[in-house]
Each structure stands twice: as C-alpha cells, then as structure tokens.
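Hi R.,

Here's the input for the uridine-5'-diphosphate-xylopyranose complex you asked about:
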Amino acid sequence: MKISVIGTGYVGLVTGTCLAETGNEVLCIDINEDKVKQMQNGVVPIYEPHLDVLFERNIKANRLRFSTSLKEGLDHGDIIFLALPTPEDEDGSADLSYVLGAAKDIGQIMDSYKVIVDKSTVPVGTADRVREAIAKETTVDFDVVSNPEFLREGFAVDDFLKPERIVVGSSSDRATQLMEKLYKPFVRSGNPIIIMDEKSAELTKYAANSFLATKITFMNEIANFCEKVGADVDKVRAGMGTDSRIGKRFLFPGIGYGGSCFPKDVKALHKSGKEHNYDFDILNAVIKVNDVQKKILIPRILSYFNNDLKGKTFAIWGLAFKPETDDIREAPSLYMIEELLEHGVNLNVFDPEAMPNVKRKFGDQLNFTSDMYQAIKDVDALIICTEWSIFRTPDFNKLKSNMKNLVIFDGRNLYDVNDIKAEGFHYSSIGRKSIN
Ligand code: UDX
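And here is the predicted structure with uridine-5'-diphosphate-xylopyranose in place:
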C-alpha cells in the first residue's frame, strides 16, 4: 500500500519505518529541511533500539523515502498518517495547532480519496475537528480515522511490530477495511484490531496512559507509607502483583514517572474533564503526588548533610526519563539537578545516551563524565535517577576506593538493601529501610 506520514518525530518515524518493513511504500514528510536531509542520508535522528537496522534496510529497498513537500505526500499516499506534536498548552490542555494546520493544508491540496489517520495523542472530539477543517477546504471525498499509538520508548519498534492490540476509531467501512488490511501483518499471532468510534479510540489512549500513571503513583504512595511504618515495598509489590487482577507490571516505585506521554496525557485528560464540567479527582491527586515524588530524595539528602550542601560534589547516574532512551522530557533527574544546583552542589553526571540532550539544557553548569566510574571520583554522594542495566551491577570495590563518602541515594531501588549494607554504604532508596 502507499502510505504517507506527516511529521517525523518519534511516533512518525517509528510508524513510517515499521510500515515500510511489511512491504508498504512509505513517504515521510517533515518541514524541517535539515532533518529531512539527514534522513535522506541514512541518519536516524533519534536513539531507539533496532530502529537504525530497519531504517537502513527499508531505505535501501526504496520503500522508505523522505521529503519536505506536503503535496508530494498527498500525491503519494492513499493513507495519510498525521504524527504531529500535540504539546502541552500553558493551561495543561493539548495544543492542536499543528494537527489542525496540517488538516487545513491537506484539504487545500488533496485531489482524490484519502484516509487521514490521527496518530497523535489528541483530545476527544479531535477527529471531528480534523474532518471539519479538511471539509472546509475541499469537495473531494475523504475519511478521518483515529488510530492511537501505544509505543513505549526504548521498545517502540517491538511494540509496533508485535502490538498487544491495535485500536482503530472509524465510522466509515471503506476506511476501516483499508486500516485492517494495513495492520493485518502485525497481528498474525491473533492479537486484536479493535474497531470502535473515533471518540472512544481517542479516549482509550488517554485512559490507558492515565491508568498506568495512576498505578505507578499509587505504588509511590504505598512506598512512602512503607517507610513510615517499616514495611518493605518490594515484598508488598510481590504480594500484590501476583494477584492477576492487579498484575506485576508498572508497580515499581521510584522518583516519579516522566517522559513525553504520562505527564502530558494525565494533565490533558484532567483538563478535558474540566472543559466538560467533570472534575477528575483521581487525576488531580496523581499529578500532585508525582510532582512531590520527583523531589522526594532532596529532603533526605539535606538531612544527611545537616542542611548544608554548599560546595559538596555529587554524582548523578542516569539522566534519561527511563532506560534505553535519550529522551529527557519531564525526567525526574532534571528536577533533581535544578534543586541541587540551587543548593550550591557540584554535579558530575553520567548517562549512556542522554548526555547531549542534558548538555543542551544545562551547558557548563554540570560536569559531564565519560563513564560511570569517572562520575563518582571523590564525590560526597551518588544519586541514581534512571535504572540503566549498567548501573545494576557496579564494581563496589571501585566505588569504595573512589568515592569520598560511601553514600548512595537510589531513586530506582537498584540494589538489595542487605547486599549494600554488607558493602558498608549509607543507602537510602524508595519504600525500603535506610542503611546508616
Ligand atoms: C508510555 C506508555 O507506556 C505507552 O503505551 C504510550 O504510548 C507512551 O507513554 P513511555 O513514556 O515510553 O510509554 O514509557 P513507560 O515505560 O511507560 O514509562 C513511563 C514512566 O513511568 C517512566 O518515567 C518510568 O520510569 C515510569 N515507571 C514505569 C515507573 O516509575 N514505575 C513503573 O513500574 C513503570
């Protein structure tokens, strides 16, 4: 099939590349000329495991091409994916100007039947607004479909190629059939393509992300309470998670959820509620708890150093909002860095992938190190913000001979409390007993 993808951000690029992988001819459109040139030269603009291999293979096979021309995109594709940003507006709602702007342009250019697919995460009712924006400009027949993505960064290629489900919101049989044909190769194992109306599809995405954010936040509160009563959140998690109605996944407490989806989507759904005179009390609480959780280690650090951090040097391991990505959007590490800099701390930081992005934000204020052990040289404490695998089994002898103080504040519960006690560290983690 002939597919065009408008917008080559994270979602657009993964969608375009994976659709090419099943033999479709894909043309990706972006207004950023430098980025398009870069991609035409075979360079993937983001870090996402396995994407580079698929990218190269499909460019070589001439199934994946790039252009800055929307007209070319509309001439090429029978299905047009909109994978445009929907950033958070000042009031927390989703800014639809990119999506509706593209819809208007599409209406002006389109000269034959197209299926326009909303891939971006958009508030309920957006498919109708996209339809109106296009219809205003043209008399040509078209359909608008909502097809939310559920890709996790770091696993996006896998999630796209082997989805647990595909959600398609469509009220046109013609469009539904095309979407089913397109996605059939991805659900051979029997996972469902769930067809519904556009509004339900739009809400499914927000509901799923908000539920997961709530699940994590619930565990963060349980973890905080564990510390108060002397319980161990690892045990509570194991006990709870084995109940199949609860499930084992997304029960890991930490220094808050981050990333490009959860924070934005929870706020947008909350805001949407308000617009329809519905107050999502639960989401309000989730937002509040997560804001506090991101900084939960700060009072502990202050208390350990008698409220005087000036001139101290700390190492931070992990800057990305989660492992296997270079994405730092809403990363808890950023909140940590800002607070610690305000207290006059010198920071040595290390992350396997995200350092260039953090450098752009903080520049010379941080000391970027080339490996995890260089970061801990002569430091007063080590703070862990992201659970990259490489941090899980460090050489504790190296830590002991290089750190000035044997102090670890672990925002991701990487180590067994008893093991670390035996190594002689002061250790503070989330929802478990502290070792002094
Ligand atoms: C998420 C959704 O999972 C995906 O379906 C959606 O399409 C986009 O948003 P992503 O943001 O890439 O994906 O990351 P995810 O793995 O879901 O983690 C989100 C945040 O929750 C991270 O900050 C992570 O550290 C945190 N998290 C996750 C926890 O704190 N505890 C957990 O148990 C799981």
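One thing worth noting: The first strand starts at residue 2 and ends at 6.

Cheers,
M.
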